[in-house]
Design goal:
The complex is a heterodimer of chains A (164) and B (151). Chain A has 164 residues and is α+β, with helices and mostly antiparallel strands. Chain A has a single domain, classed as Chemotaxis protein chec. Chain A is 34% helix and 31% strand. In chain A, helix 1 crosses helix 3. Chain B is of the alpha/beta class and 151 residues long. Chain B has one domain: 3-Layer(aba) Sandwich (Rossmann fold), CATH 3.40.50.2300. In chain B, strand 7 and strand 8 form a beta hairpin. The two termini of chain B are 24 Å apart. The chains are: A alpha+beta (164), B alpha/beta (151). At the A-B interface, helix 1, helix 2 and helix 3 of A face helix 1 of B.
Chain lengths: 164, 151
């Protein structure tokens, strides 16, 4: 996976999390994941098609999702409340939207599928020829995991010439 | 959340009335909270572009805060359709997807401004003042009495 492709998502996640959680955030673990991804909490899944294909998953423990929901709404929301899921979807929306803005301005043309709450207990494989990057952001509400499995499509491999 | 000097309609001193359009219940709630801190009132909500058109005709708000990416009908098309019927509609696009083509497309169809998510309350407040122009006054914080015209 090219850094130029994933950096906008990292920057966007850092900025959006900082504003949504109302605290400083820092990058925690960064791993290349070879196995399928199994969610640990409330997960939102976003698919991509076009010049860039693959998916990104945001995964938050229920307590972290509740913290995010409380921070976003300004009212106390308990872990397990339906609003916690809505908050994770909104977080995914905002991070992806901000990153897409950067990538689109760099000339990439692709479609983002609407975020969905990922409920399956089964793991998500990275795409056939794509490894997945798993990273966590440490926030005041707990860790937020972002699992990225993206690739350039073959017909647009010229995009690899875009400077990092 | 930070409090702002209340914005009142110049014609009658009443709170500015907003239609909030976003498919995310969270985004609507968050914008609603900001509107409260501006001294405004959420007159209506819609979760897609089609519903926004209906809701606009029902509540005739002073301002629309409109998301772009939504099911049924996207925000830019909804803005265009509202403006075909209500040419004086003040529509501000609010979206996390802020690339240039999107912004230009929205402005070309008549949207008055664009605010990128995550929305900062102070940015939105200034945009509301700018878009409302001479039709809004800034009231004193304590008593809500309009004391100065603000464009």
């Amino acid at each position: 996976m090219k850094m130029e492709l994933i950096q906008p998502f990292i920057n966007a996640a850092d900025a959006v999390l900082g504003q949504s959680m109302r605290c400083r955030t820092s990058v925690g673990e960064v791993l290349m994941a070879e196995k399928t991804y199994e969610r640990s909490g409330i997960a939102a899944h976003i698919g991509f098609t076009g010049d860039i294909e693959g998916r990104i998953v945001f995964d938050l423990a229920p307590s972290t999702a509740a913290y995010l929901a409380s921070s976003l709404s300004g009212t106390e929301i308990e872990a397990g409340d339906e609003m916690a899921k809505e908050a994770v979807l909104e977080l995914a929306n905002q991070v992806i939207g901000n990153a897409v803005t950067t990538l689109n301005n760099q000339g990439f043309n692709f479609k983002v599928l609407p975020p969905e709450v990922y409920l399956s207990a089964q793991g998500l494989p990275a795409s056939q020829d794509t490894e997945a990057l798993l990273m966590s952001f440490d926030t005041c509400g707990g860790a937020v995991f972002m699992n990225i499995a993206l690739r350039y499509t073959a017909q647009n491999s010229r995009k690899t010439a875009v400077s990092a | 959340m930070e409090q702002f000097a209340p914005l009142r309609r110049k014609k009658d001193g009443q709170p500015v009335r907003y239609l909030v359009v976003d498919d995310s219940v969270f985004a609507r709630k968050n914008l609603g909270k900001m509107i409260e801190t501006f001294g405004g009132e959420v007159a209506g909500e819609a979760s897609d572009g089609l519903a926004a058109i209906t809701e606009y005709g029902r509540v005739l708000p002073d301002m629309v805060l409109m998301d772009i990416t939504m099911p049924q009908m996207e925000g830019i098309e909804a803005a265009e359709k509202i403006l075909q019927k209500h040419s004086d509609a003040r529509i501000v696009m609010v979206s996390s997807v802020g690339y240039q083509e999107n912004i230009v497309a929205a402005l070309q169809r008549g949207a008055r401004h664009f605010v990128q998510k995550p929305v900062k309350a102070d940015v939105l407040y200034e945009v509301v003042k700018y878009v409302m122009g001479d039709d809004v006054v800034v009231a004193a914080m304590a008593d809500g009495i309009a004391d100065s015209a603000h464009a």
